[in-house]
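cron nightly-structures :: item 1 of 1
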Amino acid sequence: MSESPTPINPVCQQMLNCRLTGNITPISWFRNILTGSGKPDVVAIILLSDIVYWYTPMMTRDEHTGDVIGIQQKFQADKLQKTYQEYADIFGFSKNQIKNAIDNLCNQDLITREFRHIKTGTGLAITNVMYIEPIFDNIVKISNKIRSPQKDRGYPPKKLGDIPVKSEGISPQKHGGPPPKKSGDLPPKSGGTYTKITTKNSTENTTTTTTACEAAAVTFENCIPEPIRSGIPELYQDHKDVLANIEAYLQSHGESYVTTELDYAAAHSTKDGGFPAFFRRSLENGWGTENLKIQQAAQTEQLIRQRRQRKKELEDKRTEQQHLADIEKRDRQIDQKIQETIDRLTPSELGRIEKEAWAEAERKTPELRGQQGQMLAAAKEKLSALPDHERDSLFQAAKATVVAAIGGLLGENHPGFQRAIDNQVLREVQQRYPLKTPLAGLRQERIKKEAQRILKTIIIHSHGLLKIDDAGETT
């Protein structure tokens, strides 16, 4: 005896009717897209998932065969155009986190990043617009890889540009080089400097010597505000030139200026190891401030265009409503004049105009498609229901009409002669008896409406109701 199937979980049953949408994130990315400390770079993974979504094309299928008949991309330009701030607003991360994540994706050759100078449709120039494109082959590799290359072969070495040079305040000891030695001088086991110890300076050497990097760190912690401190790339947070420039421009230009230039340098410095020099030139020339002004000007221009467009649409709508109101008012005035004129007409004159309007409406209104077939069917049905003497009368009248029309061209026994009589009989039935069919009734309604319109037209033209007097009122 077979076992009964396990009942489905109620929540699973509810999920049958739930259709969630969003980006796709393979689990393998959390093992292969890592930070420098070997942890999953969640921000980079989320951004790569969104970039892959935008580059996934939309397919158009034939509704009958199901075949793909067209492929269309989701963005307008040749590449996906994004800004760090857009991604920060979408996912709730800081702008610096977004920038670091994009850097990580570029360093791992999962995406390419390009900065362009473009012009808007109004001719406004915008510099350093970022365009992103995924590297498909490398994304497929990490999507199908079980362990990350970092865990298999150790973490990748830093690029040469990421290591500050000696001139930037890094001691030779940190690069692994031996300390300078003098003959007979050995450094103490507990650490310290290599200064020769004498009776004169022994007291001075009991104090702790502060290195340049430690001094820079103290200055960094105590003098630089937290928003600026968090915006400095991690690799350069102890760089003496970066810290010195920040302190100098904080005093001369203020926190807002430094923050703007720091964000700009962090977003646009692409050369390995070139951030300190790029940041210094940005502070000197105000690149970030100028770029911010351009963006604000573009946003202001866009808002002005939108306000003008809304204002124009509102004015057009009001003009159209006023025009329709004027037309309705004029139509009411004309209808009132028409009715007053009809009330003054004699019955015979009104009857003559109505008859003329009806005849004109019948002439202008064509028969509907299929109407003749319905009328012939109704005539045949009426003919079969007539008594014998009326049927004989119809045939005699039809025969006389056919003979008068064709004379002696055909004998009475000719098939064409008999068909002509049958057709004439049906026409006689349609003329003598009222035959009601759906299409004929619909045509009569159209004729009636057209006759009413023609009646008004005749009265308007014959009595001059469209003439306008000096006061602007209808006469």
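cron nightly-structures :: done
The CA atoms of residues 117 and 127 lie 4 Å apart.
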